[in-house]
Amino acid sequence: MDFNEIAKEVLDIEAKELNLASKNIDSFNIKDAVELIYNCKGKVIVTGVGKSGLIGAKIAATFASTGTSSFFLHPTEAMHGDLGMIGKDDIVLGISYSGESEELIQLLPHIKRFDIPLIAMAKNENSTLAKYSDIFINISVTKEACPLDAAPTSSTTLTLAMGDVLAVCLMRKRDFKKEDFASFHPGGTLGKKLFVKVDDLLRKENLPIVSRETKIKDAIVTMSEGRLGNVLIIDEKNHLTSILSDGDLRRALMNPDFSIEKSVEEIATKNPRTIKDKNLLASDALKIIEEYKIQLLIVTNENNEIIGVLHIHDLIEAGIK
């Protein structure tokens, strides 16, 4: 049995159904559905049972994360108290491939009793769900990918895709930008990139700081205790003058006249890379670190006094990319 061939067949069948839907998009009432949702003052309540319910939950999640207030409500739960979750300003998106799912059909009269607009996704415009609806979106397919042509496969793929169609259309209509998306995903990569600032990750306490006159042997101890692989060097006015990295130390060891009794400033890097804006995005700080191939970015005030340091490891651990 060639499973690769079976996999190709499944993908081809489902792709064919999506392509067919794309060619017939004019018949899907997409514009009316988008306008209805766009002008909704409440939430989009997505409901369905079985596989349709699972797809509906994903559609509701996609709506919610792309600027359309939405949640999934199981029809059975609605009939046992949760109907009160649907408000007069809401819209219901009902999903049932047959259009005759018993649990969903039982809910419909109560939805219409409150004059709640209903968008229906089903395969038959003459189904009970479709007849109750204000807007009907046909999700019929010519063939399921299931070899028995029974298990929801192509049909659930198309249903999911139509949910994406509505979500993306609404994003375009609202001019929904990546900053908006990130605000709904503050813990995701994009959210961190757009919202986490240098000050959120800045190390300010117990920094490895020594004076210019400190001997190298003592600076090495401070470097080890600081666990940053660097020592910050200041003058008598607490102004940053230089930095000693473990790389500087290794290079100095190669000099024949090296002595641990010398002052640390003799082998340190003068005028290290610094920034003064602690509210700079952490993602922009990472660009500076990568551009100058450094591990430590120092934040100073207008007087060149050290406020804190940002280590590349802190950025990595925070998921800044």
TrEMBL record:
Domain SIS residue range list: 33-176
One protein family per Pfam: SIS
Gene3D superfamilies: CBS-domain, Glucose-6-phosphate isomerase like protein, domain 1
Residues covered by the CBS domain: 202-260, 268-321
Source species, domain of life: Bacteria
InterPro entries attached to this UniProt entry: CBS_dom, CBS_dom_sf, GutQ/KpsF_isomerases, KdsD/KpsF-type, SIS_dom, SIS_dom_sf, SIS_Kpsf
Gene Ontology terms: biological process: carbohydrate derivative metabolic process; carbohydrate metabolic process
Residues with site note (Catalytically relevant): 51, 103, 144, 185
Keyword Metal-binding in record: yes
Gene Ontology MF: a single term: arabinose-5-phosphate isomerase activity
Binding site for Zn(2+): 74
Record's keyword annotation contains Metal-binding: yes
Keywords attached to this entry: CBS domain, Isomerase, Metal-binding, Repeat, Zinc
Similarity-based family: Belongs to the SIS family. GutQ/KpsF subfamily.
PANTHER family, per database record: ARABINOSE 5-PHOSPHATE ISOMERASE KDSD, PTHR42745
Entry protein name: KpsF/GutQ family sugar-phosphate isomerase
Organism of this sequence: Halarcobacter anaerophilus
UniProt lineage: Bacteria, Pseudomonadati, Campylobacterota, Epsilonproteobacteria, Campylobacterales
